[in-house]
Amino acid sequence: MTSSATRILSSVFGYDTFRDSQQEIIDHLIEGGHSLVLMPTGGGKSLCYQIPALVREGTGLVVSPLIALMQDQVNALRQVGVRAACLNSSLPLDEIRRVEGQLLRGELDLVYLAPERLLQDSTLEFLDRCRLSLVAIDEAHCISRWGHDFRPEYLQLDILRDRWPELPVLACTATADERTRREIVTKLRLGEGRVFVTGFDRPNIRYRVTPKINEKRQLLDFIRGEHENDAGIVYCLSRKRTEQVAKFLVDNGLKAMPYHAGLSAGVRHRHQDRFLNEDGLIIVATIAFGMGIDKPDVRFVAHLDLPKSIEAYYQETGRAGRDGLAANAWMAYGMQDVILHTRLAEESDADEIYKRSERQKLDTMLGYCETVSCRRQLLLEYFGESLPEPCGNCDTCLEPVDTFDGTEAAQKLLSCVARTGQRFGALYIIDVLRGSESERIGRFGHDLLSTYGIGTEFDVWQWRSIIRQMVTRGLLAVDLEGYGGLRLTPAARPVLQGEGKLLLRQETAAMARAKKPKKKKATVAILFEGGAEADGEANQALFESLRELRRTTAAEQEVPPYVIFHDKTLAAMALHRPTDEAEFLQISGVGQAKLERYGERFLAVIRESS
Ligand code: ADP
Ligand code: ZN
């Protein structure tokens, strides 16, 4: 059995070895066992049910939440010669009939359905008449009420267990905190199955967080400096902002488009389509964009607003670098984010328990932003994993943060907040601390306070950073009813009384500005590092010709270029320069079907260039 799985891996998908626990998961499913599979985005979940569906007798059902992306997956499968189709409401009736006919005759290896379609009585009754091999439930965290992608229909998927008790179920997700994990197992009744957790690390993604100064400009610098002509996703919190930011990028000569739930379905579809099909486009989106996007060559994900939890952040940033090549997760954040999120949580009509859970998630997210140690260690710890050494590929590892003993600064700040009556916002408090001669301070008589002018050793920027850190550490709270007034929390007392030292992150405006990204090598150049130095240019030129051929081939078939071959596969061709079919088949990402379809044309281009 293992040997047939391995054979399929290489002959159909063109890969020589399984990753992590793929093999174990596949064997378990082939033997008919249930499982929950937790793997990071890009980890290779799809093969875990696609290969068993090819080995087991009958058709595999794949439940997937997004109709728009099913076609993409089906296209990719057809390219490698797998008999796949989808059934959804966007298809014309005769197409649905055709697919149903194929299903009845056992001519399909895999069929993709949205949960609402699957759960219709007519669909279930129809499927009773078909021979099925397994059920795969993609994005299984959608079953969790606590999660950010909750889909009520997912809750009803447990009826599949009663209806077809003999069918093995594989649920998979990239979101995997303990609670979500338990919810999936309970609600889908996978109790007697196995849980497979693979490493959550995405070593090719570089995590960076920078304080906001002028975030649009900072974003522009980042993209120009490191991602000229790369595909990327920029996340914002509001619809309006996605439009403003997209316009700003376009005004500055970049190819960017907005995406949010307020745009018409047609516009959304067109923007997503272009993002998938063209090279080097930027999507500026609310979180409505991205679930199930399996474009492998997204080179960066930028956050202009703070995501509301680590899960959301990890999932969004996970959309970068699925192909395993270097990618960036970049975020700008500031005090406004903290206020906005706290307010959103307070204003929601959810119950108190839910709100508390939201607040905790936000706190953890803020802790991540302000951390002075390795960001990856912190992220992995959140998912219950540990990384013994700092990663060397996040900003705090690459440019260690300076810290300073902030106890005295904190005391000055806290006592100034107390003496002004715990109702003024950050900027006013800073004015008092720095001894500003503003008329307002005089009016309140705050120039007579003992804390007036005792904080001139820090500039406004530094004080803002200190205040932000005090808020994230829960020493100060922001009043949300009024104008963002600061007040002390019970946790502030020990600090005021001089108990314990407070280590703070040292940050100056000059430092934040100086962190201008350096120009770096194009991603493909890095791919060629294995080869001889002198060949670099020739390889690059061949790579570009192969890309051009891929572009025309993809256009002819109306599929995205990466469905034909990934960048990584083209780079391997450029590096190894296969001369015949046998050598071509050796390239990772080339299986039997792709050899037959494309071998000749691609080999011709490679030969021409030699
Ligand atoms: P996800 O876990 O996000 O669903 P995918 O299943 O889309 O990830 O896989 C991500 C990429 O990794 C795909 O391009 C896939 O073809 C590739 N991949 C998966 N398994 C292997 C493997 N064993 N060897 C090489 N590439 C693989
Ligand atoms: Zn690190």
Structural class: alpha/beta
Number of helices: 29
Question: So, the CATH homologous superfamily of the largest domain?
Answer: P-loop containing nucleotide triphosphate hydrolases
Give the C-alpha Rg: 27 Å
What is the percentage of strand-forming residues? 5-15%
What ligands can be seen in this structure? adenosine-5'-diphosphate, zinc ion
Measure the end-to-end span. Answer: 42 Å
**What is the third-level CATH name, the topology of the largest domain?**
Rossmann fold
CATH architecture of the largest domain: 3-Layer(aba) Sandwich
**Helical residues, percent:** 40-55%
CATH first level of the largest domain? Alpha Beta
Structural features, described:
- There is one protein chain.
- This protein is an alpha/beta fold and 610 residues long.
- It folds into four domains: 2-197, P-loop containing nucleotide triphosphate hydrolases (Rossmann fold, 3-Layer(aba) Sandwich); 205-398, P-loop containing nucleotide triphosphate hydrolases (Rossmann fold, 3-Layer(aba) Sandwich); 403-514, Orthogonal Bundle (Arc Repressor Mutant, subunit A); 523-609, DNA polymerase, domain 1, CATH 1.10.150.80.
- The chain is built from 29 helices and 17 strands.
- The strands form four sheets. It has a seven-stranded parallel sheet, sandwiched between helices. Strands 8-13-12-9-11-10 form a six-stranded parallel sheet, sandwiched between helices. Strands 14-17 form a two-stranded antiparallel ribbon.
- Helix 13 (310-317) links the parallel strand 12 and strand 13.
- Helix 18 (407-419) crosses helix 19 (426-433), helix 19 crosses helix 21 (460-472) and helix 25 (536-557) crosses helix 27 (567-576).
- The longest helix is centred in the last third of the chain and has 22 residues, at 536-557.
- The chain is globular.
- The mean pLDDT is 88.
- It binds adenosine-5'-diphosphate (ADP) and zinc ion.
